[in-house]
Input
Amino acid sequence: MDLGLVRRAQRGDQGAFEALAMRVHPRLYKVALGVLRDRQSAQDATQQALVAIWRYLPRLREVERFDAWSYRLVVRACYDEAKRRPQWLPEAVMRSAGEPVAADEYLGVVRRDELERAFPRLSVEHRSVIVLRYMLDLPTQQVADALGVSVGTVGSRLNRALKSLRAVLDADARTAGPAIRQGVSVR
Output
């Protein structure tokens, strides 16, 4: 990150903020989409995060921590957005009956599809920690900074999140029938 750009934006330079927003928007949107699993909600959360960055940037004391701070703001925006969204899933998403048996070369596609159906059923906190750690491949310390928690808390949240994901996948496999019981490997 260009710290000079952050400092200029921090002092109220609107052009610097616009340039900064253009740079951080793609990664903030990637986090929001990973957590919320809905394009419109992810766009809304990203916009909320950018507004919060504009509003609170002058108060940021350690400019070199801008990345972690901006991740924290987008994760908080995702939490807020998830509270506003309805908590139901369409019946078609919940139902997985009649899925075809996949050949080996298509097994990866089937597994990604199973994960895609299971992931939204995790809590926002669990999705957030998984997205930051595995989707963005952030080190545990950066995940902790982004979430505003300790490294130990990140470890325990990851552990619980992956157990929850396994439980959802196992439940889906039991209802899907014997054709798809090959399962999905979760870290």
About this structure: Residues 8 and 16 are 6 Å apart (CA to CA). The first helix runs from residue 3 to 10. The two ends are 30 Å apart (CA to CA). Residues 88-187 form a domain with the Arc Repressor Mutant, subunit A fold (CATH 1.10.10.10).
